[in-house]
Amino acid sequence: MSSLVAAVRAGRTAEVVSLLDGMTEAERRACFPELRALRKELRADQWSSQSRRAYPALHAAGTACQTGAAGVATWIAAADLRWQPVSPGVLIDLLGDRSPAWLAELVRRLAERPPATEVPYELMAGLVRLSGCPVPTTEAYVHGWAEHVGGLWQRGGTLLDRLRKDPHLATLTAALFETEDIGGRLSWPATEGEDSWSGALARLTAEGALDRRATVAACVARLLRGGPVADQRFFLRMLQTFALTRDEEHAHIADWLALAGDAPSPVAAHAQSVLASLALDGRLSTRRLAEMSGAVLFRPEKKLVRSQLVLLGKAITRDPGTADELLPVVAQAFEHEDSDVQERALKLVERHLRKAATAEAREEVAALAGRLIPTLRKRAAESLGAAPEAAEPAAYEEILPPAPQPARLAPAPESAVELAEEVNVLLAADGDVAAFERALDGLVRHAHLDRAALLEALEPVVAGRWWSKDDPARHYGTDDYFTRQGLVGAAHGLELLMATLLGKVSTTALHRAVRLGTGTGTRECGHQPLTRAFGARFWEVAYRLGTEPLPFLLSTPTWSTGLLEPDDLVARLGEYRRLGAHVSAADFAQALLRVRRADRAAAGAAARRAVALGTVEGARLAAWLGGDAVATPVVRRTVHSRLLVETGEIAELRDVLPAAFRPLGEPVSVYKNRWYCFHGGDSMRRHWLALLPERREFVAARLLHGISSTAMDDTRGEAVILPLLAESEGEAGEAVHLAVAYGLGARHPEDRLAAADALLVLAARGQLDADRLGSDLGQLIRRGAVKPSRLVESIRTAVDTGAYGTVWAILRQTLPILLADLAAATSGTAAPARGLADLLGIAAECAERTGVREELPHLSRAAERRGTSRLVSQARRLHGALEGTAA
């Protein structure tokens, strides 16, 4: 028994297998407790060379020394063991003497585990051969089979050859259509030809190895079920490879109808083409065509809608008797959001209306004409006999989302156990400012009240942290880790405090960090003053934890935005005086930056109470509150490699605050603060806003370069902070509006959505300068920094909420800049902006909804151009709406 464990510990796998072969079942079982104890020992330091050497032998021995299938399956798939597993062949050899029924049960348990456990397919397939059981069709087994068969290209032969030889081909192929997230695996080794999955399966179906009818039905059913894009793309390609006959297509009419209405665009387009062919061959009834059209005409993809209108026109031309049933369906497109689609539908109705035999059909079409845009509605009144528009339209009322309100922070958790749970959650996933500040204040309070109880509660939280264990072989210690790297996030700051509580960071290192700060590199970026100020409070609080713990934090905000009410700060300073506690300079500086000063009456009253405290900090707070309102730095626009802003110096931050906070008052320069850095995480940015909650213009200036990259360099995530920026306090000036403008033109949808949310929040709070934002957008489009197609999507998001007046106020400044370029293009000196037609269409919709009447520079010249292009038609539509001639 001891010799087996010794061989396992030494990592001698061959010797372990030899010893196990000579043992009885009872002797193997007797060894298992020692093996389990060894596993626990190795898990405590699983990355050491000794552990890595021992794990394969331990994996093999633990598998052989258990009798229950459930225990063996759990051991084989254990996360700590599978990083250094023994080969599947060794496991199969060790398990070969078990009964077929036992092996079948083991196969079932292994195959039912999630694919993420990465149980080797070779092991499961080998056990299937030994047991003679039916092949599993679980997600893990099918994923493993697909990867195994598709990845054997290096052994020669094609995928088709390997599939032909598979004894379980029919069963596992049928299971492919029931398995989720399989499309990515099936795109290897090729996407076309007989060495692709789609080509190989189509060939096997033609040869009769697979039942064609069942395989086609399974493929269609999989498309109906939906799923990830990769799955849809693969199964559509497979279906197209089968080259269905007209009879096969006809057998699935109900499926095509469902796909045309609800499937993703590529799948819907294929279903539409199949149904169109059937319709033109006379194999699709008029009722079915009407059903199909009713679903497709409400899809947002204009290409699908236009194709459907073309199909309806051909169907009516081929059989005029269908006009009564199909023309009301065509008229449903009158309420499509795209005016070009509306016009196409109206032309189609006008062309075929005389073919309608019943008055009911003509009346239904005329009734739907009321949903057309005003220009087309007037035309429909003349051509279709629809009711004319009312002379006095209803007054427009802007719809904006309610302005978000900040939430008051709850007190820190009263029990150490509850606090530890909240800290653990924050370490796993960065929370918002409120949750973080509560936890931070809670750590300080409980460390002061009962350090032993806090350490006991935090024990399970820190157990998995590498710095909680002493390892003489480690090349660097916790002092180096925390002080040289600096703080890279809020969660890292919480780790610093916990490591300090455990005595893992020396007081000397903390004192040095308080005095000198911590470096994160020699290159300067615009974020460094923010990161340094954010970290200064942590270093000083950590130092005080090891020397003179604070009773609580002065700087904990009152509100979720980071604002601190002056009365709360005065009360905390009074409690410090009562306790005789020594104030932390960094904590007090952060409190000053957060205290509300914009409310001059409340600030003045609080200043008088602060003076009455008779303390140095009370006097400093009174002077801070009694001074001028929040100073706004001089902001000037500049053109470097992109359109950015620079700020002047903020003297009060430079002169009053401690050294770590003084860089906050330095000017922002696009030439000096231009380096890319690692400070971009969303968890950091939200805390920068809470660092200076009444100075969002200043923070926006330092964030602007990163936000501009979402539009100019196609980066992701930098603009997600924009809604929080809009919810903050302080001036919303050049930097804030330029940041929103860049976000509206961002490459990725989540950034554009965040920018649209910020726009609406600013509008709802009455802080949006629409003229400024519209002008910024025009200049950015002209410079090529923002693509109009991306802006269209962002602006459409705002319009869909009902903010027609807000969007019009923006576009009335953007469009003249672009229309001026269009006028220049007419004379051959410049090219018109791509996407201008879509922006004109949205502007026209806004003008029609709001009833605005004004003259837009350069618009009349665009509307007078020859031709019927979309740009010209939308310019005429907007011109008519603004002139009032459309009504």
Automatic annotation (TrEMBL):
Listed InterPro entries: DUF7824, DUF7825
Residue stretches making up the DUF7824 domain: 522-607
Stored Pfam families: DUF7824 (PF25148), DUF7825 (PF25149)
Origin: domain of life: Bacteria
Domain called DUF7825: residue spans: 686-798
Name of the molecule in the record: Secreted protein
Organism: Streptomyces zinciresistens K42
Source organism phylogeny: Bacteria, Bacillati, Actinomycetota, Actinomycetes, Kitasatosporales
